[in-house]
Amino acid sequence: MTKKTRRMFLAIGVFAFAAAAAGLTLSALKSSITYFYMPSDIAAMAQKPHSPIRLGGLVETGSISYPNAQSGADKNSLVEFNVTDGAETIRVVYAGLLPDLFREGQGVIVQGRFTDDGARLTADNVLAKHDENYMPKEVADALKEKGLWIEQEKAK
Amino acid sequence: MKPSLYDLANPLRFDRIARAALPWLVAATIVLMTLGLYFALFNSPADYQQGQSVRIMYVHVPAAWMALFCYTVIAGASAVGFIWKHPLADVAAKEAAPIGASFTLLALITGSLWGKPMWGAWWAWDARLTSVLILFFLYIGYMSVWRAFPDKTRAARLAAILAIVGFVNIPIIKFSVEWWNSLHQPASVFRGGGPTIDGSMLTPLFLMGGAYMFFFAATLTQSMRSELAARRLARLQEIDARSSYVLVEQ
Amino acid sequence: MNGRQAIILRDVRLAFRAGGGSFQAVAFFSVVCVLFALAAGPDLRLMSKIAAPVVWTAALLATLISLDQIYRADREDGSLDVIVATSDELALTAAAKAAAHWLSTGVPLIVATPLLGLLMNLEAGAYAPLMLSLVIGTPALSLIGAFAAALTVSLPRANLLISLIVSPLYMPILIFGAGAASAGAAGDPQYAANLKLLSAATLFAAITAPLASAAALRSNLD
């Protein structure tokens, strides 16, 4: 095999490897190694995963409740809320301190595992996710007054 | 004669130009930093969601920009030095590394300080944070290669190879928040569709970015001058030692 | 047999000799796993949760300490100068060295993995994903590691520098590899994505590492 032939084969080989690498990467990114799942992703699964997962979405308005409020124990010791992405909802139970930014309509990422019956996610960790919009309070208030305030539909 | 990068190739000429430019660079840094901090701390509004803690952004975000920018400068200078053998390219790359590493560390620390009130966590292993941490280790490895080889010509070539290999991390950092669902928020400034950040907040951001950039330019210029002077001194000492050796032989 | 095949054969033979690199790698691999198992304590559930990532980390560390030796023998007996001077395609030779390293270090680690999995109470469903991720990922470790060895070949003792150079480059491999191993066990859909990214990383390393190694060898030897 002459040097030139070998060079050609090498070039073809490099190109083939590079193409394969690029193709694999694109394919993987489409299915997306995610830091978190959205409720629709969970709903699309055949069965709820039994391993610890991260769930991301918005806190559904009106869904926050404190089950311990009646029983006389510390109200903040247990909180339940829904995480939604507009299409699907998952109920989350959390026994810990919520971050400052946590409130209705806010993006959150919770980490935990589903209960055995799959009805709820018991969260070990709740993180509030900030979107990419930064604006002064006055502008936000003015927009709300004018009725132009658009709540984010997806927590991304 | 068309001006080209090779006009700067003569180290003595570079030193003359650098010495003239340095006061201006330092002055620009001070002015922009003062203005930037004033705007950041006093003359810009609090964010509608985060309140006052958004002000950490004005230190954190430009630092992250510089972390990526400095590594790009190092990789570019390494390529120029490796391919075209421009004499100052390697010196530029070598001196830019500690500055870039410091900016990366600043970005990581201020990001962590900002993340605690904002997200509720000091750290998370999402794609953006992890790849910036990897960038910091790349800087450390790069600087270690320079230190490990006493022959600086050899060190320059080997460090250049490492810098170019590590450059693959830069697009990963930039696009990590687009490609993967991550905790770190997506781009607010450099994105298709324009910035999603209010004008009153863009001003201090760009002022601080400018301040950091002039700081980088000033520090790099001064470091390069020192390094070139140290090399001249070493060469002169070597010649001096050799000539005394010749005298002894007589 | 051509020169490159001879190099691979010699390296593998040397490594499998008594006191050679293969045994050291497997021994260190086992020691790290045992230490993690001891540190995790008697909680079997905890151990099986961390088993796959621990095995991956131990494999990475065992590979890391073997990297200094890749070019050491060649350097000491002077054959490295001959190889670099006479090789028609130095990048291919560098790739051959990386292949030899994988055969002598990566493959024994993979073979030892099921036994260590038993030790760490690895779940039954996790063996296949772990082995697959190691089969795809350890060549990347050898390729990138051989590059770091080539970069430092003219230094007398380069262990610390090799670790500093190689750790940011190894981190993505570890993330995808251990991620695939854990996700595969849990039936998590991220298994496929992690494996694809791991494969892409190995392919990318197969292209860039030999080229970079060749450049590094030449820079070190003139």
Q: For the largest sheet of chain A, list the strands in their spatial order.
A: 1-2-3-5-4
DSSP E strands of chain A, number: 5
- Order of SSEs of chain B, N→C? HHHHHHH
Under the CATH scheme, which architecture of chain B would be assigned? Up-down Bundle
Overall form of chain B:
globular
Rg calculated over all Cα atoms of chain B: 21 Å
End-to-end distance of chain A? 55 Å
Largest interface: A-B, 34 and 32 residues
CATH top level class name of chain B:
Mainly Alpha
Helix/strand/pairing category of chain A: alpha+beta
Strand content of chain B: under 5%
Distance between the termini of chain B: 49 Å
Outline of the structure:
The complex is a heterotrimer of chains A (156), B (250) and C (222). Chain B is mainly alpha-helical and 250 residues long.
Secondary-structure map:
The complex is a heterotrimer of chains A (156), B (250) and C (222).
Chain A: H1 3-31, H2 39-44, E1 53-59, E2 79-84, E3 89-94, E4 107-114, E5 120-129, H3 137-145
Parallel strand pairs in A: 3-5
Antiparallel strand pairs in A: 1-2, 1-4, 2-3, 4-5
Chain B: H1 11-41, H2 57-84, H3 89-118, H4 127-148, H5 152-166, H6 169-179, H7 199-249
Chain C: H1 3-16, H2 21-40, H3 44-66, H4 72-76, H5 79-86, H6 90-119, H7 127-151, H8 159-186, H9 190-221
Helix pairs in contact in C: 1-6, 2-3, 2-6, 3-6, 3-7, 3-8, 6-7, 6-9, 7-8, 7-9, 8-9
Characterise the protein shown here:
The complex is a heterotrimer of chains A (156), B (250) and C (222). Chain A is α+β, with helices and mostly antiparallel strands and 156 residues long. In chain A, strands 1-2-3-5-4 form a five-stranded mixed barrel. Chain A folds into two domains: 1-33; 39-145, Nucleic acid-binding proteins (OB fold (Dihydrolipoamide Acetyltransferase, E2P)), CATH 2.40.50. Chain A has three helices and five strands; from the N terminus they run ααβββββα. Chain A is 28% helix and 24% strand. Chain A has helices at residues 3-31, 39-44, 137-145, and strands at 53-59, 79-84, 89-94, 107-114, 120-129. Chain A is elongated and about 85 Å long. By secondary structure, chain B is mainly alpha-helical. Chain B has a single domain, classed as Four Helix Bundle (Hemerythrin (Met), subunit A) (Up-down Bundle). Chain B contains seven helices and no strands. In chain B, α2 crosses α5 (152-166), α3 runs antiparallel to α4 and α4 packs antiparallel against α5 (152-166). In chain C, 83% of the residues lie in helices and 0% in strands. In chain C, 56% of the residues are buried. Chain C has nine helices and no strands. Chain C has one domain (3-221). Chain C is globular and about 55 Å long. Chains in contact: A-B, A-C, B-C.
